[in-house]
Write a structure and sequence with these properties.
The strands form two sheets. The chain has a three-stranded antiparallel beta sheet with strand order 1-2-3, with no helix packed on it. The mean pLDDT is 84. The protein has a single domain, classed as Orthogonal Bundle (hpI Integrase, Chain A), CATH 1.10.443.10. It has helices spanning 28-36, 42-57, 61-65, 96-108, 128-141, 151-164, 169-176, 181-187, 192-202, 204-207; strands at 72-73, 78-81, 90-93, 119-120, 124-125. Strand 1 (72-73) and strand 2 (78-81) form a beta hairpin. It is mostly helical.
Length: 210
């Protein structure tokens, strides 16, 4: 309106509020099936290890596909994210079960060219669509239904489990690579029973024995 001469000064228009959507996550049974899957081919081992990596660390899919073998510190259980969003580096811890998977994967999979952790052909970067197609195929084989089979769902599942198992939102923010806590909050999907458990722990009346 200002540019076309209908207003002497620029008008400030507040942004419309976006409806908040509950982020989907895999159930405990889904996670159990993914974790206990026994791959039989190199392709199955690659997508299974990739999925478990996101499920255990909450990394973004592009961060995983851009990761190099040198980013994996098996001795200290740390994963260096060298290609994070906004070109920001960070270090993310991982579990002993994932260490076993990564150790086995690194021993059996090495590119002929370059140093990518997950690669196609002789060392090329995997296309995200191809990776997602492989993951959907894994979910289909594991009979995972009723939820969106995506890498985002793996990331959401990690974030919710992190808080549910005692992690705090500030550490989670750092692990996920978010610049603002509000971004982290959008990933979390706590169920009613989780809220009830925390309320029971924090209730004043419970503390005084009422």
């Amino acid at each position: 309106m200002h540019e076309e001469g209908h207003s002497d000064v620029p008008q400030r228009i507040p942004r419309l509020k976006e409806a908040e959507k509950v982020c989907e996550q895999f159930s405990n049974e889904h996670v159990r099936r993914i974790g206990r899957f026994a791959p039989k081919t190199p392709a199955e081992r690659r997508i299974h290890t990739l999925a478990c990596l996101i499920l255990d660390t909450g990394l973004r899919i592009d961060e995983v596909l851009s990761a190099e073998r040198a980013d994996v510190d098996l001795d200290n259980l740390l994963f260096k994210v060298s290609h994070g969003k906004g070109s920001k580096e960070r270090v993310v811890p991982f579990s002993l079960p994932l260490r076993k998977l990564l150790f086995r994967y690194l021993k059996q999979h090495k590119p002929q060219h370059g140093d990518l952790l997950f690669f196609a052909g002789v060392g090329q970067k995997i296309n995200q669509r191809n990776a997602l197609r492989a993951f959907k195929g894994l979910c289909k084989r594991l009979r995972i239904t009723g939820v969106r089979c995506s890498f985002h769902t793996l990331r959401h599942t990690f974030a919710t489990a992190y808080l549910r198992n005692g992690g705090d939102p500030f550490r989670l923010q750092r692990v996920l690579g978010h610049t603002k806590l509000e971004m982290t909050r959008r990933y979390v999907n706590l169920q009613t029973e989780d809220l009830q458990a925390v309320h029971h722990q924090c209730s004043v009346l419970v503390k005084v024995g009422q």
